[in-house]
Amino acid sequence: MLMTRHFLFWRFLNGRLGLLLLGVLIAVGIVLLIVLLTSRKYPRGNVKTAPGAQPAASAAGTPASAVTGDPHGKILDLLRVASEEKQVSAADYEERRMVLDGGKYDNYRRAELVELKEKYARFELSTQEYIEARAKLLNL
Fold it and tell me: Which region ranges are annotated with the description Disordered (predicted)?
């Protein structure tokens, strides 16, 4: 009882040990908050389903995106084939690929959005038309 009267809480915080523990606690809290927020934005999954994972294509020569059912990969394959057929410049191909990569995490269950992306990948729409139509579809 005598010890608690002489060692009060504010004496502990005025000392360097109390500030050090408080600083470590705040730093751990910030790191945990960052980990929590990034894990919600980029959920972890199986290595095979990771965004950069490319499964081996089958012997029939079908693209890897057709094997996995990845809609974004299918649209990029469509862009690659259309650019080879029309012999488009590398700069135009890269521009369209980057614009399509910007919408990589869109909801591919919306048929209108998938159709719009396929038209853009087949060079039926200009970049400006695609951006305006996508913004209208997504209410941006």
Answer: 47-68
